[in-house]
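User: Please check token order:
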Amino acid sequence: MNRNRVIYFLIITVLVGCSTAGRHASHNVFRYNESKGITSLDPAFARTMPSIWPVSQIFCGLVQLDSALQVKPCVAKRWSISADGLTYTFSLRNDVFFQNDTCFVEGKGRRVTSNDFVYSIDRLGLEEVASPGAWILSKIDTLKDGEPAIIAQSDTVLAIRLREPFPAFLGLLTSPYCSVVPREAIARYGRDFGHHPVGCGPFQLKVWRDGEKLVLVKNPNYFEVDKKGIRLPYLDAVSISFIGDKQSEFMEFILGNLDFISGVSKASKDELLTRTGQLNPKYANRVQMETGPFLNTEYLGVLVDPSKLQPQQSVLLKKEFRRAIAFGINKAKMITYLRNGLGYPANSGFIPQGLPPYNPNFHGLTYCPDSTLAILARMGYPHGDGLPAVTLTTTDDYLDLCEFIQHELSVLGIKINVEVATGASYRQAVMDSRLPFFRGSWIADYADAESYLSLFYSKNYSPYGPNYTHYSNSLYDKLYVAALKTADIKLRFRFYSKMDSIITNEAPVIPLFYDKAVRFVRLGIKGMAPNPMNIPVFKYVQIGKK
């Protein structure tokens, strides 16, 4: 540890024992920091976690997810699906109102109707909006006039007709993209709606000073109540700061000026966690650590399109070589030493832990260096002799992980060159399928395994879809189509499992680990247990005494 880090943690140690008398006077204001900043609170642009978190507090959709990833009512109190799986009919509550705002007559929010959902979902596809969520409309059929088949049958009845069966559609509707917005607010604020959001969620925007603070306050007219009939939310406000430096964020948390931090940074992981991923005992009297699966699979991706590879990289086209790489990576060791136990070794396919039909008893490409050596020998490269080096591209955030993989494989005779690219250029190169071998991650867009399996459907070739590896397999495609046509969830899960096993065997991707959501929460706070989508539900948070 360098001198500055030593001084930093000495200061922290002193501060841990100090009083937190300087805390905010209100005990019912929940405070967290967003180090990456927030650019918009318009749900049409809720693409990244920094935006999704507050957007999910301000806005509501037809349906919502519970902590077990089950689709539950929200603005829609019930729904039905036609026998052919094409038409979804929703019955809406009649007691949901938009938050008060000057865009409405006399500043009073009006009732939400089915026409508002027609407008809001249609809006995603408007060229002038350019929403990254426009792809949702590709699942919806069109009317004779070319408009999406989203029909308000009455103020409280909404029908949506799909182009073809898509059993994951209800889960897709839980996405923030599908939140309801009032046309009056869009008309008034235009492109600035993202800084003047108006929704019907449990919180509403009070203050936003760019780069300094964002405050959400309780929506007094929110429609949901808890099991005891108490109106949600319990909090009076949520205060968000924008400290960019992770060490400073950690210090503010230890001082008691923040109520929780999500995840761990390189700056604080060795201070907060033991090597095995447990909370450092020195913080046990003031901090509670909450963990659980997070729907994110970290992996190595391989471009398996011969037309895209240079001759010197053609060895990547060989399935056995890709499997040799997979067998040569000690995933458990990687998680222990590089992530302090925050993650689960990806030994059971590409579908992550926490998402059905994940099966812990399905053993995929687990660590087995003898298998790596045997494969190389069969390929004519005993101990890697004569095997050309391949280049693995990553970003700086994952350099240590890729260097670990580089070292692990070098011992077995597989030579890996690690190349670092900047975030923006790296993401674009992955999307354009220009990287032969890359470190990737996939976070679920919605709580259905189809979100992961769509990465390998041949009709989803990038840049028009998420198949960045350009993988193609006729049997896989047949199973994928069959899964989308069945409403029988057990049968669909069997299709999903077969697809996952094909990907594991063919290895166009090499899963490294399934992510783990971790939250460090001040003692006395309830309702902050993580969910697999890693989106906090602040309407259930309660603040008590330490």
